[in-house]
Write a structure and sequence with these properties.
The chain is mainly alpha-helical. Among the domains are: 5-97, no CATH class; 147-233, no CATH class. It is 68% helix and 0% strand. It has 47 helices and no strands. Helix 34 packs antiparallel against helix 35 (625-637) and helix 44 (763-775) packs across helix 45. InterPro entries: PPR_rpt (IPR002885), TPR-like_helical_dom_sf (IPR011990). PPR repeats lie at residues 292-326, 327-361, 362-397, 398-432, 433-467, 468-502, 503-537, 538-572, 573-607, 608-642, 643-677, 678-708. This is Tetratricopeptide repeat (TPR)-like superfamily protein. It comes from Forsythia ovata. Keywords: Repeat.
Length: 824
């Protein structure tokens, strides 16, 4: 039955009205149709479906509920109520029904996932008790389908490659390209979507793609996509993203596994939020997901990584009490924990106890301890441990064992010891491949022993183990570090004779050597001929040559390298940009530094607040204050908020120019922004205010600053600065604030004030300061007080001179016999 005319007109009016609010956003920053329009249409369909059965058959309320639930919960579109769309939201009850027994679990987990703090604040020990107290011993293991292990075939699929290519060009996105990506998305099977997520080098891009795809019409994430996204995020510090993905899974009734909560735990742990990671266990059980061995292993790993070994051991005990039997992975985590806190004996005891607990150690258990011994250069104990591994655990040292030892010793630059194990492995009939040889050769090169490295390369060739590009590159880099660039060039040419083609890393190592030896121009020429040599410079190559020019003072050439670097699609880091603009500012060319920074910013480089501050400081050094203030305004326009260092730089420049009122206003603006003043901020303000004698204005400003960031020595600095600028009487008025704490620093300040009075010929003022120090149980410097006493005597003030020295006698710091001239 078709819609009637009135219904069609209402739908058309609704679409026209809501499309006026449409806008495009790509991954939150670019193109995407606003969901407000969809909310309006679904609200209309929902209202009609309650009265007309035709609408209920045309539009599934469950689907609508899921879509609106998705938008309102995750992407902040619930605010449409405040924008006049109060009737646009469909109640969650229109979606899949929730059983009464599930409501508590759902709400409790929401409370944790929606909070910024990650739930209630409790001690880790209490969390352990709660977790195991509610453990169900008679639980049945649930099986969740959908393995998401990586598949190389999926990564090489043409559709996956095309989607990744479109994502890489997101900076130049258009609605047409988004339409192509949307079309490809609907053609992708769930495993291919997982492959796209895993293929992203930047996990933040993967998360944005996950959100963008989730908002598309006629597309719904398969559960394995959620699992894959959580696994990707578990390798990062993006704990808030992992928490939101888990939130979506719970809200959409997607079955959560213990591994999924484990991914969130690891992400919280990487971000340094161990307490929140452990709270995930309690919330997992409240959501109806039972503990298992894998999540317990994750909890122990998190505790060990945060150096909370005692809590990890207590967790292990509780596991065993409730019937969760640990495995070798569990014990290996604890062994690693013992090694991290340098408790090697306890690690060895744990290995010895494992067989009695029904779990035999594996080679990883021993390798963990061996790695610690290699780091400590306790090679004899490494050999003893290998014998113990054979005798006690019947684990024969094999090729993997020797390769592991060789790489661990090479990592910690124990070249001779690594070579010794290499020889031993070959004597026992094991074949050490070029990877093992390359590790030892690189170790010798790092220590500057190039003759030994060359001998090993020749030995490899004689044994039929052909060196690869990694081996030769290590030697080339070694020659360059030793300053023998000519030998590095010859070796690079010999690589072709041995059938090994140098790659970008090989040439970059040589260019780095040339730049460090002051031959950046030659390095630049070699880059220009890269196409002839069949290699392509990368971002590191450009950075090496750019810094070479910078160190040589060829700043124009360095700027050209940055511009070429950006044209090639390589963006310098903020640190690299700052080093260059800092060098330019030191040459007094702050305008050129500003121009370069603006070019980098306009081209999409990650310019940060430090770069702006460097340019501002460059202008301040030239006393071009107007230009510095202009750059400060540009920061706000570029959405780069100044920090305390930025404000302090400008405040100091204003003070030098005598523009104290402007410096005061800028200080208040800094405080209003929530920034804390630094000690440098205090010193700068004190210096300039005291220099102009505006002590009262300074004290008023400090009353606003000190509650934000207390600086105990601020009054000491004021007094000392007033003394140096000749305002001794004003300094004396502040003496009471200094003597409140009566510390050693206060005594030094009082001595400065006393010496200032003596220089002015006011010995009585010095006497008063000394008396106030005695009253606060501070002992003045005896030699300084002797000078004051003599001055008082010369001025005929004998009573004050006697009283001052008697104070020392009363406290046992001076005998009467020692001062006959005074007391005679």
């Amino acid at each position: 039955m078709p819609f009637n005319t009135n219904a069609r007109n209402k739908i058309r009016e609704t679409l026209v009205r809501t499309l006026q609010f449409s806008k495009f956003t790509w991954f939150g920053d670019y193109f995407h149709e606003s969901p407000l329009s969809c909310n309006g249409v679904f609200a209309y369909f929902s209202s009609q479906s309650s009265r007309n059965p035709i609408f209920s058959s045309a539009v599934n309320p469950k689907v609508c509920g899921q879509i609106l639930e998705r938008d309102d919960v995750e992407y902040g579109y619930g605010r449409s109520r405040e924008e006049g769309f109060k009737d646009c939201r469909i109640s969650i009850s229109d979606g899949p029904s929730v059983k009464s027994g599930e409501k508590y679990k759902f709400d409790v987990l929401d409370e944790f996932l929606e909070s910024e703090n990650g739930g209630e604040s409790v001690e880790d020990s209490e969390i352990e008790l709660r977790v195991f107290d509610s453990f169900n011993r008679n639980r049945k293991e649930s099986e969740v389908s959908g393995s998401i292990e990586g598949d190389e075939d999926e990564l090489r699929h043409p559709l996956v490659k095309e989607v990744c290519r479109l994502i890489d060009f997101r900076a130049a996105w258009t609605p047409k390209l988004e339409g192509e990506l949307r079309h490809l998305l609907r053609s992708l099977k769930p495993r291919k979507v997982c492959a796209v997520l895993r293929a992203q080098s930047d996990e933040r891009v993967a998360l944005k793609f996950f959100y963008w795809a989730d908002r598309q019409w006629r597309y719904k994430h398969d559960p394995i996509v959620y699992y894959a996204m959580l696994q990707v995020l578990s390798k990062t510090k993006l704990c808030q993203g992992a928490k939101r993905v888990l939130h979506l899974m719970v809200r959409r009734k997607i079955e959560c596994r213990p591994e999924d909560f484990g991914c969130v735990m690891v992400s919280f742990s990487r971000a340094g939020h161990v307490a929140k990671a452990m709270q995930t266990l309690t919330l997992m059980q409240k959501a109806g997901v039972e503990l298992d061995l894998s999540i317990c292993n994750t909890a122990i790993y998190v505790l060990v990584k945060d150096h909370k070994l005692e809590k990890a051991l207590r967790f292990l005990e509780r596991m065993q009490v409730v019937g969760i039997k640990p495995e070798v992975i569990t014990y290996n985590c604890l062994i690693k924990g013992y090694c991290d806190v340098h408790q090697l004996e306890n690690a060895m005891e744990l290995i010895a106890e494992m067989p009695f607990k029904g779990c035999f150690p594996d080679k990883v258990s021993y390798y963990t301890v061996m790695g610690f011994l290699c780091k400590e250069k306790r090679i004899d104990e490494v050999r003893e441990l290998m014998e113990k591994m054979l005798k006690d655990s019947k684990l024969l040292p094999d090729q993997v064992s020797y390769n592991t030892l060789i790489h661990m010793l090479s990592k910690y630059l124990h070249a001779d010891e690594a070579l010794g194990f290499l020889r031993e492995a070959e004597e026992r009939g094991f074949f050490i491949d070029k990877v093992g040889y390359s590790a030892v050769i690189n170790c010798f090169c790092q220590k500057g022993r190039m003759d030994r490295a060359k001998e090993l390369v020749n030995e490899m060739i004689s044994k039929g183990c052909t060196p690869d590009v990694v081996t030769y590159t290590a030697v080339v880099n070694g020659f360059c570090q030793a300053g023998e660039v000519d030998h590095a060039k010859k070796l690079l040419q010999q690589m072709y004779k041995h059938g090994c083609k140098p790659n970008c890393v090989s040439y970059t190592a040589l260019l780095n050597g040339l730049c460090k030896s002051g031959n950046s121009t030659e390095a630049r020429e070699m880059m220009n001929t890269s196409e002839e040599e069949w290699w392509t410079p990368n971002a590191v190559t450009y950075s090496v040559v750019m810094h070479g020019f910078r160190r040589e003072g060829k700043l124009s050439e360095a700027c050209d390298m940055v511009r070429e670097m950006i044209r090639k699609g390589f963006f310098p880091t903020p640190v690299e940009i700052n080093l260059l603009i800092q060098s330019i500012c030191r040459e007094g060319r702050a305008s050129e530094a500003k121009k370069l920074m603006e070019e980098c910013l306009n081209k999409g480089c990650a310019v940060n607040v430090v770069n702006f501050t460097t340019v501002i400081h460059g202008f301040c050094q030239k006393d071009d204050l107007e230009a510095a203030l202009s750059v400060l305004d540009d920061m706000y326009l570029s959405n780069k908020h100044p920090d305390a260092v930025t404000y302090t730089t400008v405040i100091d420049a204003l003070g030098r120019k005598g523009r104290i009122d402007e410096a005061t206003e800028l200080t208040k603006k800094m405080l209003h922004s929530g920034l804390l003043p630094t000690p440098v901020t205090y010193r700068s303000l004190i210096h300039h205010f005291c220099h102009q004698g505006r002590v009262d204005d300074l004290l008023k400003l400090l009353e606003k600053m000190l509650p934000r960031q207390d600086c105990r020595s601020v009054n000491n600095q004021i007094i000392e600065k007033l003394c140096s600028s000749g305002h001794v009487d004003q300094a004396y008025k502040l003496l009471g604030k200094v003597l409140r704490t009566a510390s050693r620093i206060d005594a030094n300040t009082c001595h400065v004030l006393m010496e200032s009075y003596l220089k002015e010929g006011n010995s009585l003022g010095s006497y008063k300061v000394a008396c106030r120090m005695f009253n606060r149980n501070l002992i003045p410097d005896l030699k300084l007080c002797e000078k004051v006493s003599k001055k008082l005597m010369l001025e005929g003030k004998l009573d004050e001179a006697d009283k001052l020295m008697l104070r020392f006698v009363e406290r046992g710091h001076l005998s009467i016999k020692c001062q006959p001239a005074v007391f005679g």
